[in-house]
Design brief:
The protein is mainly α. It is built from 20 helices and no strands. It starts with a helix and ends in a 6-residue tail after the last helix.
Amino acid sequence: MALNVQILKRPEILGSLTLFIVLISVYFFSIDIRATRGASITADEPFYLITTQSLIQDSNIDLRAQYQTHSYRSFFDHPDGLWTQSVPLEDGRLVSPHNIGLTILLIPGFIMGGLIGTQIQMVLLSASTWVLSYLLALKLMSLKPLFVWLVTIIIALSASAFIYSSEIYPEIPASFFLVLSLLFLVKCDRVHVVRAFAVLICISMLPWLAVKYVPLAALVGLYTLWKCTSVARIFLIGFGLLLTSTYILFHFAAYDSLTPYYVNLVYAGDSTVSIVERHVNFFDRFYRLWGLFIDRHFGVARWAPILLFIIPGLALTIRGNAMHRLIFSLIVMQILIATFVAITMMGWWFSGRTLMTIFPLLPIPLSFFVINFYSRFRLPLIISGIYSIVITTALAVAGHSRQVVIAVDPFEISSPVFQFTNNFFPLYTSWNSMTWFLTLIWIVLGTLAIFLTFRSKTILN
């Protein structure tokens, strides 16, 4: 009884527990949605798991035994078996071209239940990440808990967040450590050694999950360095160099290079500099700046229009305090990485993979927009929020009925609500006059929204 009274007196605790329970209940329905007609998982997912299996069975990351015995069939059900993504190293070892962080993280779930156990572990981690997101927004915005809870859950129940809650990719674990690092920094004027150590441990996890998260880790690290006391700053630099050296030494020992991409079939034999050069492209990918949001098939806001209000919300976020500007920088940095560094936004995966790491930060700019413009945009906000939930529900139903598969044709769902809005969004796999026309309209609307919100008188707290 005393515990129940204590929880009721602490709405953030009640909100966290409720959010966790609701999201777990919903996210479990994402587990049995197949990736392709031939396999339950696809793309990079089986290669994270086969390395996990190798660590458990052989205590190494050499995959030759798994391919020879076909032990991967315990989690990969494609009739043709599992292909290879990498070339053997000079000593004959065959390793996966992915950083090892996620494979280690998945060991408990894999031991307990193989593929299903791993997906359950991912669901628990996803729900936990959104709880951290709720607490971050609550501490950073000083708003009513119910308001923050509603803003958080509307994004957490978007189609992309729903699908990736059980997908075996490093994006959700990376967002967990990213949000946790930010929680250590909220309302902290001076960072002392213990807090600096906690932040450093969190951001040091990001490169182990994927080298593409180094810019995000660097932004949080620089902010922490700025806030540190003199002693904490020395500690942060010294221990940070030690962790960086460990990372470099391991990767040269395991992959003969600074990055696992060195063994990838596509980049085999290329230097780290060459691999980076092949990833970075500006002119051919510039359209992704808006395509990541409004593409008919892969735009996150096409699947959840409530996310359209994130863009003007960012124009308000940058006008906040230093922590708000750090959030803004992290979101923009990931958008730039997804635009100019990621090889494609249209791979064998569902919409939003390259943005999922910063999804749990999106309640903050959305909160800024809602508290400032709800009276003027009440109807669009309500309609887009309901529409987003309806589309997630329709996608879940279509996935479980095998009408669509997530990595191939999710946009073929028969939902009339979804298909009705098709012609409002440009399709960037088919460039024609309509593509340019729709793009122009969206860019004009987006620019006006950003301009008007940036110049408006705002309530920042």
